[in-house]
Amino acid sequence: PIWQHREIRFDAPFSQLTLRKGEVLIDSIANVEDTKGNNGDKGNLLITNLRIIWFCDDNKKINLSVGYDCILNSEIKDNNSLMKGSSQALYLRTRFQQSRFEFIFSSLVRDSPRLFSSFQAVIRSYETTKLYRDLKLRGAIVQDSELILLPKEKVFNKYTGVWNLSQEQGNLGSFYISNVRIVWFANLAEGFNVSLPWTQIKNIKVKESKFGTALVLETSEFSGNYVLGFKLDNIEEVHKEIVALYQVYIANPVFGVEAALKEEYEDIEKVTIPKVEDEFEEVDQSDAGPNMVSAQYYLTSGADSYSKKKKSKIIFSEEIGLAVEQPPEGLTLEKLWK
Question: For the whole model, what pTM was predicted?
Answer without folding.
Answer: 0.77
